[in-house]
Each structure stands twice: as C-alpha cells, then as structure tokens.
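Regression test case RT-17, inverse folding.

Input:
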C-alpha cells in the first residue's frame, strides 16, 4: 500500500511499503511460472497487445454499405472492407437517426477478423425502428479498443416497411 510521508524539507512523498514489494515480487514470480508452464494458452495476450498498439492501416470499402433487409421495426446494413488488420475482434458500427444531421443512435455487431481473408464483411442489425420511416445512417468499423478502422462514407438512407 502506498503511504504519503513528509520529507525533511516539507514535501509530500509517496512511499511503497516493504510488504507491497514482496507481494509484487511474488506476483511476478507466479505469473512467470504460469507463462513458462504453459498454463496461459499461446496467443492469449495477442488481442491485448494488438489493441495496445495500433498496427493496422485504414480500411477501404469494397462493397456497400447497403440495406440487406428491412421489416417494419428492424433493418440489417451490410458492407465489406479490405481486411483492416489489427485485433482479431472488430465491430461493425452504424450511426443512424431520422435526421441526416443528427445520427445519435448507434447499433453495433462484433466480428472476428480472419487474417487469411483479404476482405471483411460487416452486418449490423438495427432493432426497435418505427414503421414506414426513412432513416439516415453512416457506417464505421472499429478494432477491439474502439479505435476506428478509418472507413469514411457519406450519409446513406433506408426506409422501413
């Protein structure tokens, strides 16, 4: 546990208790053993490491976005990008609303990136829509950390039944 002590010249200084140092050494030793013994599967930390350091370039649209289907209360928007790289987990995100200048509602869907596939298809289901209504939307995709893949499009429209 950290504690604050006052130095001789009147400044506050953080000190780490000896028991905390011992605890930290024990944790590091245990973690090292777990890793060496193979108790943490290979690649377990890959997503965390990839998420911490952006390693992908901006994704480019190759198809869409387009309305895949619509009912009176739901819609599915689909688009395809060049494989963005980065984390294995990505999200398709649709920003939508009934005013083209006010896309405040958001729907998203998780996607698992296949590093051997040159493209990535995103499909996002939007629920609880009003019937016979025109909606405006923009799409984006993000990595696991929420950082955008860089897809940029103009506002599109669809209409529920």
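Golden output:
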């Amino acid at each position: 546990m950290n504690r604050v002590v006052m130095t001789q010249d009147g400044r506050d200084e953080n000190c780490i208790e000896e028991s905390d140092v011992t605890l930290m050494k024990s944790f590091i030793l245990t973690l090292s053993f777990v890793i060496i013994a193979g108790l943490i599967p290979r690649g377990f930390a890959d997503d965390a490491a990839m998420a911490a350091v952006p390693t992908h370039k901006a994704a480019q649209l190759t198809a869409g976005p387009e309305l895949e289907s619509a009912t009176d209360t739901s819609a599915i928007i689909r688009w395809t990008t060049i494989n963005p790289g980065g984390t294995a987990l990505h999200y398709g995100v649709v920003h939508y609303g009934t005013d083209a200048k006010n896309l405040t509602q958001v729907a998203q869907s998780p996607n698992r990136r296949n590093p051997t596939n040159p493209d990535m298809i995103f499909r996002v289901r939007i629920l609880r829509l009003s019937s016979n209504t025109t909606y405006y939307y923009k799409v984006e995709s993000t990595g696991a950390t929420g950082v955008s893949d860089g897809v940029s499009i103009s506002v599109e429209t669809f209409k529920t039944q």
